[in-house]
Write a structure and sequence with these properties.
The chain is an alpha/beta fold. It folds into two domains: 193 residues, Rossmann fold, CATH 3.40.50.700; 121 residues, Cytochrome-c3 hydrogenase, C-terminal domain (Cytochrome-c3 Hydrogenase, Chain A, domain 2, Irregular), CATH 4.10.480. The protein is 26% helix and 11% strand. It contains eleven helices and eleven strands. A five-stranded parallel sheet has the order 2-1-3-5-9. It is elongated.
């Protein structure tokens, strides 16, 4: 069994809430069936108070064996590097000191969510709490544990980024660790598991026909592509949200909301409103991953000139106003 200690630091607890929505009839049983033993979780464990503190003391002292330290939420280092903004209840000891101590003994360290991975929303703006990720501050290596940190199992911090994380990303990551099937080659350059980070949110988006013809939504309720006017970064965001649906049903774009690229470092400070697409000479600044600007301009111009009337009309409506034509196509 892969024995996991899960701590929560500076954040909203949304990744735990997301985990509770996993596509399993019983989360605890599903974890056990996957070979995962959740030794401690602040919200999901029966152990509280003195019993919980004893468990953590035993883990730090080596009296309780565990394999994974999972941390949810950013590490609050303030004020002045003391960590005093966040102390574990029942002790005067800063949570960041607990994390350092437990990480040193863990076989693997997992950052659950973009706050734990990169600082995330908790580190937004002027960052008065001096929040950071376990091994990153936005896209800069460092964080609490340092750029050179490697856990006893040979991996750096595994960054299961997302705000919140998809429950499947968390469970699959822990399952792979339990099976000894997650190596350095299975992590991308930001430490994210490649089984989801090698995908783009754009893949599988139900608005792709509108994207192909550059038929754009003009307001939130429209069916068209959300990239040109409404801030969608699905062509840049590394995640499989539209092929691994949330709760088996939806995603941000399927719910009518632009992708804000929450798996990426720095997403919390885009420099503009999330629903706004910044442009230069009418061209979106944030172009699709790996696409040169000249190609995008040429493609957009050609696509718009060829946009079918049906696609153009439906893009700025909240329902299908022009259905696809019914024509005899034969068998060719």
């Amino acid at each position: 069994m892969l024995r996991v200690i899960w701590l929560q630091s500076g954040g909203c607890g949304g990744c735990t809430l997301s985990l509770l929505g996993a596509d399993l009839p019983d989360l605890q049983r599903g974890l056990r069936d996957a070979g995962i033993d959740l030794l401690f979780h602040p919200a999901l464990s029966l152990a509280t108070g003195a019993e919980a503190l004893t468990l953590l003391d035993d883990a730090e002292a080596g009296r309780l064996a565990y394999d994974v330290l999972a941390v949810e939420g950013a590490i609050l280092r303030g004020p002045h590097g003391t960590g005093g903004f966040h102390r574990l209840a029942g002790r005067e000891r800063a949570t960041m000191d607990w994390v350092r101590a437990l990480a040193a003994r863990a076989t693997h360290v997992v950052a659950v969510g973009s706050c734990a991975a990169f600082g995330g929303i908790t580190a937004a703006g002027i960052n008065p709490t001096d929040a950071c990720g376990l091994q990153y501050e936005d896209d800069r290596r460092g964080g609490l544990l340092g750029a050179g940190f490697v856990a006893r199992g040979g991996l750096p911090v595994v960054n299961v980024a997302g705000c919140p994380t998809h429950p499947g990303w968390v469970i699959d990551t822990l399952t792979l660790l339990a099976d000894g099937a997650l190596g350095t080659a299975d992590l991308d350059t930001l430490g994210r598991p490649r089984f989801y980070a090698d995908q783009l949110v754009h893949h599988g988006c139900t608005r792709n026909e509108y994207y192909e013809f550059k038929a754009s939504a003009e307001k939130a309720s429209d069916q068209g592509c959300l990239m040109e006017h409404l801030g969608c970064k699905g062509t840049q965001a590394h995640a499989d949200c539209n092929t691994r649906l949330w709760n088996g049903e939806g995603s941000c774009t399927r719910g009518g909301f632009a992708c804000i690229s929450c798996t990426e470092p720095g997403f919390q400070d885009p420099g503009h409103a999330f629903h706004h697409t910044p442009k230069l000479a009418g061209i979106p600044i944030g172009l699709p991953t790996d696409m040169p600007k000249a190609w995008f301009v040429a493609l957009a111009s050609l696509s718009k000139s060829a946009t079918p009337r049906r696609v153009k009309a439906n893009a700025v409506a909240d329902h299908v106003v022009v259905p696809p034509a019914v024509r005899k196509t034969g068998r060719r």
